[in-house]
TrEMBL record:
The gene is ddl. Pathway: Cell wall biogenesis; peptidoglycan biosynthesis. This is D-alanine--D-alanine ligase. It comes from the Bacteria. Binds 2 magnesium or manganese ions per subunit. Residues 105-309 form the ATP-grasp domain. It comes from Limnohabitans radicicola. Mg(2+) 1 binds at D262, E276. Belongs to the D-alanine--D-alanine ligase family. Cell wall formation. Its EC number is 6.3.2.4. The keyword Transcription does not apply. GO terms for cellular component: cytosol.
Amino acid sequence: MSALNLGKVAVLMGGRSAEREVSLMSGSGVLQALQASGVDAHAFDPAERDLSELKREGFDRCFIALHGRYGEDGTVQGALELLGIPYTGSGVMASSIAMDKTMTKRVWLAEGLPTPRYVLVRREQLAQVVAEDLVAQLGLPLIVKPAREGSSIGVTKVTQVQQIAQALAEAAQCDADVLCEQCIVGDEVTCPVLGEGDAAQALPVIRIVAPEGNYDYQNKYFTDDTQYLVPCGLPAGEEEAIQALVVKAYQVLGCRGWGRIDVMIDAASRAPYLLEINTSPGMTGHSLVPMSARSAGISYEALCCQLLAATALDHAQEAQG
C-alpha cells in the first residue's frame, strides 16, 4: 500500500494519561516519519480535541501513538470502532486486557505460559496488608507496581519488609489495583512482535543493562546511561526460545499490529518469565521497537508506514455488511 492511498491520517498523541509527555515525543517522531514518507499525516491530541472531529474532518485512519490510559487500554480503540476509523495496533479486548497487568498474567497462566508469582492488592485493602505475609509468598526483593500504568510509573523494587507500606501507598496513588510480584533476578530483555495471528513474527531481542539494574522512568527516557544490546548476546538458542515465547504470549491475548513484551531471565535457571506487554509501544529516540526493527533492517520510517498500512477495525466486516 503506497503513501498515496493511505488517505488522511491522524497521529493520536498526547492524551490524558500519566505518560502524556512520552506520548508527545512518540507522536512527534511518527508524524515526522510519515510526512517524510509522503503520507498526509496530521497531529491530533485527544486531550485537546473531541474524537468526533476525526470523522468530521475526514480522517481515513489513525496511528495511535498514545500510551497508558485513554490510549492503550481499549477506550480510544472502542471510540474509533464506533466512528468506523481503522487504527494501528490491537483491538478493544486485547488492548484492555494487556493494559491490566493482572488480567494479562491470568490469561498467560491459563495458557501455561511462565510469569512471576503475584499478589493483587486492592486500594481499599491496603490497611489490612501484612507485609510479612507478602514476603512469605513472594520473597525478597519483590516488585510493587500499579496494575494499569506503564513507563515504570509508580514502580518500587522492595528490598526490606519495612519498605512495603510506602511502596503500596505510592502505587495506589496511580491505580486502585496494586500488583505485588516476585522479583526475578537476572537478564532483562524485551522483544517486539509485528503482525497478527499465525503471521505474527518476533523482531530481534534487546538486552537492557540499566545503571545499577534500575530501569526506571528516568533511565528509560531521559538519560543515555542505559545500554541496549542488539544483538542481545544471549547464549545460543535462548534468543530463539524467547522469540517463540513472546509470539505465543502475544497471540493468546489476541493482539494485532504490533506490541513489545518484557521478559526477565532467571540468572540461576536461565528460565524466561513474561512480565508485561505494551500494545502501543514507545516511538521516541530512546524507544526499543524502532531499535530492534533497525537491527532487522527496517528503518523508522518504514516501520511507521508498515504499521499504518496494517490499520484495522475489530468489526470491519459487519461495518461493510
